């Protein structure tokens, strides 16, 4: 018998307090948990997976269940989900070998480990969409000032706003490093070849490592540009101080000359 199910993943604007959510979200069947995730069984072969950075994955749940749970989680966590989502079809067939093609994954049966590794990869993928949008925004804002520097030979970027740019870029890099472990094999895949194969297939199919590296490269470019802007800003500030000192010295010289003449 072949079963086809849908897995959908979303990401919220902010982090989720899992401890608080666990006590307020009235779902009895919490089957796995760690400091970074919760895994609930909603119905038979239907699961809800929540990551602390805001990833929410629905395994084999109906659209109306997805909407209701999304609204409830966001309300309890005082956040909202982003517009984009990640979706994959899982084909459960004991006759076919484990494989992945365009938007489809084939597994021999539904087990907790298969559910966990699928949800983990989809939550990382949808988080990358979120981080990519933030990275794109930073890069586009930076381009405005590089264009201004090219056309006008100066940058109208005040020190406070510049430091906010630097803080945003560093904060995003820290979030990615803290929450996404795309180069580490998950613990549950260490001792099971089938779980490890699904992890590798999804990682490749969803281009997680490629997208992760692309975001890091973008942020490095942003940081490099901001470092140049900091140098320019510092030079402009030093020039202003030099002119102030020169004017003060001239004022003192003129004052002395006036006293001598009088």
In short:
The protein has helices at 18-24, 63-77, 112-152, 159-179, 193-205, 208-261; strands at 3-11, 30-34, 37-43, 46-51, 55-59, 86-92, 99-101, 104-107.
Q: Could you tell me the strand content as a percent range? A: 15-25%
User: What structural class do helix, strand and pairing data support?
Assistant: alpha+beta
- Mean of pLDDT: 84
Q: What is the CA–CA distance across the termini?
A: 110 Å
Helix content: 55-70%
**H/E element order:** EHEEEEHEEEHHHH
Q: Globular, elongated, flat, extended or rod-shaped: what is the shape? A: elongated
Overall number of strands: 8
How many H/I helical runs?
6
Radius of gyration: 27 Å
Report on the structure:
By secondary structure, the chain is α+β, with helices and mostly antiparallel strands. The chain folds into two domains: 3-111, 2-Layer Sandwich (TATA-Binding Protein), CATH 3.30.310; 124-261. It has helices at residues 18-24, 63-77, 112-152, 159-179, 193-205, 208-261; strands at 3-11, 30-34, 37-43, 46-51, 55-59, 86-92, 99-101, 104-107. The chain has an eight-stranded mixed β-sheet with strand order 2-3-4-5-1-6-8-7, covered by helices on one side. Helix 3 packs parallel to helix 6 (208-261) and helix 4 packs antiparallel against helix 6.
